[in-house]
Amino acid sequence: MKLSIIDAARCVGCQSCMFACVRRDNVAGIASSCIFIKSRGGISTGFRVITCHACENPPCARVCPTNALELRKGGGVKLIPEKCIGCGHCKEACIIGAVRWNPEQNKPSICIHCGYCVKYCPHGVLEMKK
Amino acid sequence: MNSDKLLHKVLYIDLTNKKFWVKNRKDLFDKYIGGTGVAIQLLKEECPVGADVFGPENPIIMAVGPLTGVYPLASKTVAMFKSPLTGNLGESHVGGRSAIAIRMAGYGALVIRGKSDIPVYLSIHDKKVIFKEATTIWGMKSSITAGRIMRENEKGQGVRSIMRIGRGGEKLVKYAAVTAETYRHFGRLGLGAVFGSKMLKGIVIAGENTVKLSDPKGFKKLYNKLYEAAVDTSLMKKYHDLGTPVNVMVLDKIGALPVKNLTERNLKGIEKISGEYLAENYLARRIACAHCPVGCIHLAAIREVSEHEDYFHKTTLIGYDFELIFSLGSMLGITDPEAMLKLIEEVEVECVDAMSVGVVMAWATEMFEKKLISEKETLGLKPVWGNSATYMEMLTKIVLQENDFYSALAQGVDYASSIYGGSEFAMSFGKNEMPGYNTGPATYLGFLLGARHSHLDNAGYSIDQTEMLTKDLAPEDVVDKIIKEESLRQILSSILICFFARGIYTIDVVSEALKTIGIDFKDDELLKLGREILSEKYKFKAAEGHSIKDLRVPERIYEAKDPTGKITSEFIKRGFDYASDKLEEK
Ligand code: SF4
Ligand code: SF4
Questions:
Q1: I need a surface site. Which of A10, B29, B293, B369 has the fewest CB within 10 A?
Q2: Which CATH class is domain B5-205?
Q3: Which stretch of B38-47, B60-69, B177-186, B376-385 has the lowest confidence by average pLDDT?
Q4: Hey, are the CB atoms on A38 and B158 less than 8 Å from each other?
Q5: CATH number among 3.30.565.10, 3.20.20.20, 1.10.238.10, 1.10.569.10, domain B242-418
Q6: Mutation test of ligand 2: which of A3, A12, A39 has the most ligand atoms closer than 8 Å to its C-beta?
Q7: Which residue's alpha carbon is at the smallest distance from atom 8 of ligand 1?
Q8: How far is the CA of A38 from the centre of ligand 2 (A)?
């Protein structure tokens, strides 16, 4: 299963999904969520919903010098934190901007496609897909 | 114990010397929670009695609360200052992304002091404040363009708030607003003019952070409960579907919607500016404040055809809500939806409070109708109910203060009527222009007695609609209810949840929510604190010369019919006497 977007045009920009992703770690706030919502160019123009596309051949994993990003079954990657040296190459390699950075830990925030955020989108923007 | 280190940090900014520093104010947050409770204390510390509203000594305080960034619908920021419009307590609330941005930037409050010698805007990122030159965007006609330029120059996309003023604030219109993002405003009481007097064009603030919890399990459980309540109940339906404009037809039906400066009770063609009609014909998109699943902000799209070029269209997205439809629609007799939306857009461009300017223009129209002023004062304009083109021109003249008359209008209807007459129908209360409720005596007592003279202080209109219509409440009962509600709302605005969520955030929920982040207050302690915060505000007002008995009551409210038929001068006077005992220290 992977996280995917049904229709970004329905997004109201509430960022409930971002807060949800952060809550998985038993904290509140908005730092280093794995899903990211920003306006296209001012809020009147609507929102961009940036999620990990769970690529089959993910560039983020390919550029990691320490193999800290392992391929995940069903697409995407898994972070092995002990291996990660915080170089940030993965972040650069993901041109859709789905690899965000956690400055506190100096490691990438990698979506694990758990679907937690989907439950908190009140407007039917997100879903879990095979 | 509350160990929320982020919240306790107050960022002090000195515009005169271009300096900033952070101070830990755990003392204030421990005692007053946050938001309004903390802001009034900071205001009292910073603002000397008798301060010149446009002098460097008038501070700007902005505060958020402990639930901001933690629980859903905690989406507001409170601003406090000495109001240019009323000369006493200035307090205004805004949503958008402001609250989350301030909290996630790592602050519980901002205190802005002094006055810059050149136009600047503040860029607040990574624990630093950069004073940015704003000369090139100062004086720009559109505040929307100025906002766009700030946006393009700044980082923090997605996690920032951009607040700015327009020409209204720069020219010190006493009811100038500050816009956050687009479509959200510190509208009331003239914060925009205080920004303008300090040569402060705007503020960009951004950050990402996490808040540690003392009971993560309890937090998640309560979060789910509140989230479910927000999206499952009628709340979502009421505010998301049609939004606040649903009230237009509701109030029109009972004859409580102010029409043409309250000279009439109903407006022919009102359906065309109703929430239903606008949603069906113009609604383009809904947006939400950060961390609010409801999404009540409604944007209408209008498409204008160019006069000069075939197949050339300009599409504009315009935010609308009930208060705008009242003040720039029914109050001015405008029922053409596109004309009204264009006027709303123009008010957004100039960045003045829509309610104030609508009421001011309604008064000017009646003055002109009654021949108490002439084209000499209006500089050739002939204001007539429903003529939006004239109101567009009038708006510009007010902002630019083209003559003495327009500069009087820029100071509010209370002031203008003190010079030109017509105070019987100058519809302001406590010098703040009225909002769109002519529901009965509780509404007016609510405006008059509310610490910031806003309908949201104590929801007097709701007492009218639920009780006054069917029962005979004594003025004393009404005042008791008003004070009780306003005290409770001090808590809601100290934790800074959106008032639309007040039904979900009952006092026991508030104490439970605070507990999960390590803040202990019993329900009755919270209620007591709410009352205390209200008294603190009243003390500030009193020190600035405010007195309930001196409040001007426009006679129009006694003549205009309202649904209860119970508004009498005797009722208001008894309310005043009783409220004075309760609220004013002798
Ligand atoms: S699927 Fe899970 S990890 Fe990915 S964005 Fe949603 S909550 Fe975060
Ligand atoms: S929760 Fe849904 S509507 Fe809200 S920001 Fe996320 S995707 Fe958009």
A1: B369
A2: alpha beta
A3: B177-186
A4: yes
A5: 1.10.569.10
A6: A12
A7: A21
A8: 10
**CATH code 3.30.70.100 for B439-583:** no
The model's pLDDT over B429-441, given as tens digits with 9 standing for 90+, comes to 999 999 999 999 9
Interatomic CA distance for residues B45 and B48, integer angstroms: 8
CATH number of the CATH domain containing A48: 3.30.70.20
- Spatial contact of A10 and A122, defined as CB atoms under 8 Å apart: no
* ipTM exceeding 0.90, yes/no: yes
Specify the 3-state DSSP secondary structure of B330. helix
Which residues neighbour B559 within 8 Å (Cβ) at sequence distance 6 or greater?
A: none
User: What three-state secondary structure class fits B185?
Assistant: strand
What DSSP line would sit under B355-376, residue for residue? HHHHHHHHHHHHHHHTTSS-HH
Q: Does A1 contact ligand 1 (Cβ within 6 A)?
A: no
DSSP string, B74-105: ---EEEEEE-TTTSSEEEEEE-TTHHHHHHHT
Asked if residue B2 has pLDDT above 60, the reply is: no
Q: Are B166 and B179 in contact (CB under 8 A)?
A: yes
Tell me how far the alpha carbon of residue A8 lies from the centroid of ligand 2, in angstroms: 8
pLDDT in tens, B313-342: 888 999 999 999 999 999 999 999 999 999
Which listed ligand is nearest to A76 at the C-alpha?
A: 1
* pLDDT grade for B233, boundaries at 50, 70 and 90: low
Q: What is the pTM of this model?
A: 0.96
Say whether B293 and A14 touch across the interface (CB within 8 A): yes
pLDDT-derived band at A130 (thresholds 50, 70, 90) equals confident
> Chain-centre distance of CA B30, in angstroms?
27
Averaged pLDDT, A28-49: 89
Q: To which H or E segment does residue A15 belong?
A: none
